[in-house]
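User: Please go through the entry that follows and flag anything odd:
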Amino acid sequence: MPLPKLYIFPISHYCEKARWALDYLQVDYELHAVAPGMHADLTARLGAAGTSLPVLVTDESVIQGSHEIIEWAEGVSSGERTLQPADLSAAVEMESRLNEVLGVHVRRMYYSEALVDRPETVLPIFADGLPAEEAQFVRDAWEIIVGAMVEKMDLGPEQGQESRHIVLEHLDWLDTLLSDGRHYLVGDAFSRVDLGAAALLAPLAMAPEHPTYGGLQLPPKLAQDIDDWQKRPVTRYVAEMYRLHRTV
């Protein structure tokens, strides 16, 4: 039986969520990096509802979105590990805030500096892992790709500052949660809430266990912010989640 195929942007923290969950739950799959600009044709060809990645293709279905892929992986894993949280209601509320607010603004904060001021620092990550022909397409079309991403994600200096303030509010929120000495965000065991939080905040810790960020060059303002945030409890928490629960 052929392995499921996972289609990702290697730089995407939402794609990292799905990839990490499959690895953690020991579900075998084939990894396929996708070129930006080609992903819309791919998702249309696969019959996905939208153009976003990650997408997992199995013998029976096309599964789009990190949350949905994690749910599927739980259903087919051997049962030796689980990402199910002890308190489901608390987990759902927290995941919603992490996915729909924090993750969006971490991405917007990064790209508002990186793509607007230093697009050459982003190109190597987007080209990483692609077949030679697709990598060349990305290099040739990079200026067009950058323009499309800036418009679609509403990027710019003011937008970046707006997102930075929202990210800081959420770092304060998570620091407060962690101030009671808890090791995990929900319950006493590693769950999809911790995996999601750590994946979405991975740029803060730049953990060596992350399969992609070792080659990520941060733009200067964001690099200074991340350096300033190294002693925050949430940054130490992200690094610890990667150290304990992520293998490259």
Summary: The mean pLDDT is 93.
